[in-house]
């Protein structure tokens, strides 16, 4: 009888393990929400900033994105979170000048989280007045599958000092990934403040390191715009996916988890005020990913 009981237990365990998901999908949204205090800047966005942040939070809840990375989540963080209902959300690092403005809202939990400030900044666009940088988290998908997520806000501006700082930012990020995400599936998303059309662009460092840009892959047919060519500027809200934002989503597969980008879309038309005005000076970008285990 004991042998039969043990056999049944083993069979049930096998069935449970074999029924575990080995593939699935999740979507990720990145959005710079223009949350600097209104007395510093209006970001060129009409309306009240607290009201706009509350509206963004409501839309996060309404559209139920799996993972949301935000940048410039500073003075109106409480308005944003009050109107959102994601189960897992990072604790703010604070308003300017103490906080980085980087936060994540997610349907999935994570096991590791870190905030890392940039070692290099250039004062031209007031980048040194807040501890801009990146965050790292290990997201838990179903069946104990994990993917490493990075949310970043790089140095802004067009002067040579800005370009040098951005390059240093990307190099610092890649060094961190090399130390903490060896052989792991990774998604990098956020405001890179860089375009492929820019001369002296630093985004090439990411693609050279094996990261795939979802916009290049799905919209551009794998061909990046030439450095120094005319900008393919997006309006806000963007009416097409063909234009290029400074906001990017890149990814790579890992040794045991494969990632592929299924869709890339501007969802800016969903993030507007009742009168049609924009809620931020950036477009929100959504990418849907498929994952599978090796």
Automatic annotation (TrEMBL):
One of its GO terms (biological process) is phosphatidylinositol dephosphorylation. GO terms for molecular function: phosphatase activity; sphingomyelin phosphodiesterase activity. The keyword Signal applies. Residues 60-220 form the Inositol polyphosphate-related phosphatase domain. GO terms for cellular component: cytoplasm. Keywords: Signal. Residues 1-20 form the signal peptide. The keyword Signal applies. It comes from the Eukaryota. This is Inositol polyphosphate-related phosphatase domain-containing protein. It comes from Cladophialophora carrionii CBS 160.54.
């Amino acid at each position: 009888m004991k042998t039969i009981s043990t056999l049944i237990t083993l069979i049930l365990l096998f069935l449970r393990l074999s029924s575990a998901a080995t593939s699935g999908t999740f979507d990720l949204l990145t959005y710079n929400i223009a949350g600097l205090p209104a007395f510093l800047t209006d970001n060129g966005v009409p309306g009240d900033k607290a009201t706009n942040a509350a509206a963004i939070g409501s839309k996060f809840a309404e559209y139920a994105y799996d993972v949301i990375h935000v940048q410039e989540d500073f003075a109106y963080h409480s308005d944003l979170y009050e109107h959102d209902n994601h189960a897992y959300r990072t604790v703010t690092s604070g308003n300017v000048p103490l906080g980085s403005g980087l936060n994540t809202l997610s349907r999935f939990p994570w096991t590791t989280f870190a905030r890392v400030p940039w070692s290099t900044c250039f004062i031209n666009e007031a980048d040194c007045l807040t501890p801009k940088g990146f965050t790292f988290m290990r997201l838990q998908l179903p069946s104990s599958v994990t993917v490493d997520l990075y949310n970043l806000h790089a140095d802004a501006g067009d002067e040579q000092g800005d370009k040098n700082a951005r390059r240093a930012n990307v190099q610092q990020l890649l060094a961190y990934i090399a130390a903490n995400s060896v052989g792991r599936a990774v998604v990098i998303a956020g405001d890179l403040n860089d375009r492929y059309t820019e001369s002296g662009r630093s985004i090439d460092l990411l693609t050279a390191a094996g990261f795939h840009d979802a916009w290049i892959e799905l919209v551009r047919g794998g061909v990046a715009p030439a450095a120094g060519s005319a900008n393919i500027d997006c309006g806000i809200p963007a009416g097409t996916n063909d234009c290029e934002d400074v906001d990017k989503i890149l990814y790579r597969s890992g040794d045991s988890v494969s990632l592929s980008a299924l869709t890339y879309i501007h969802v800016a038309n969903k993030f507007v005020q009742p009168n049609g005005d924009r809620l931020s000076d950036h477009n929100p970008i959504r990418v849907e990913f498929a994952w599978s285990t090796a």
